[in-house]
Predict the 3D structure of the following.
Amino acid sequence: MRLIFIGPPGAGKGTQSELIYSKYRIIQLSTGDILRLNVKEKTELGKQANEFISFGKLVPDDIIINMIKEELDDPKFKNGFLLDGFPRTIPQAEALDVLLSNLNVKLDKVLLLEVPDTEIVTRLSGRRTCRTCNRTFHIVFNPPPNPADCDRGICDIYQRDDDKEETILKRLQIYHNQTAPLIDFYTNKNLVAKINGTGTLEEVFQQIDSILMQL
Ligand code: AP5
């Protein structure tokens, strides 16, 4: 399956991608994760991207589109992918159309995860991420394991720099201005499936599961 996840920052795209992978083995391609890895490894891309990420701004389209082109060439995405965090602007969506048409493949669904802004602030300010396995947790809703009980090795839990309240509000504003227009873009292609992202992790996954089972 070839899927896109659209939703505001902190809607639960990363969390649900993990559950989708557990059941369907669809590999997530998260532009945010790739960028953060580059920032950590201090690559040229990482240095360029960090100036934007840390202020909650979008990284310029040309940088992101080149990055995605290289990623989609990886044979592991030959049979499908779940794009998380890309596309985020209309020019990125148009570039993806060209890329997919060159690969002679089509999108199966765009999953739109809807969560109100007030809930986003609560979620992101309590989010914690593991440096070792990249899983995301929440101090209240999905607490990280004790290091001794971690089933994937040693936990190294941290809070992302862009999860400060001021930056969260900026990211939300950018989502509404630059990313939300993609909803019409993909509705016109009859690809959008709406998901109410405000339930428990399991309730949200059940909705996604019932959509994917029909594909
Ligand atoms: P990116 O990493 O893509 O961030 P984002 O879209 O802002 O999304 P998040 O990863 O913050 O949230 P999520 O929806 O995955 O939520 P999560 O599952 O963690 O991008 C970061 C930056 O990189 C951007 O700001 C930009 O600078 C740059 N960038 C990336 N892609 C780009 C692109 N294409 N173009 C330009 N720039 C780009 O969940 C959040 C929290 O909520 C967690 O704590 C979780 O435990 C909790 N939670 C999840 N589900 C529930 C639930 N049902 N109930 C209660 N809590 C829940």
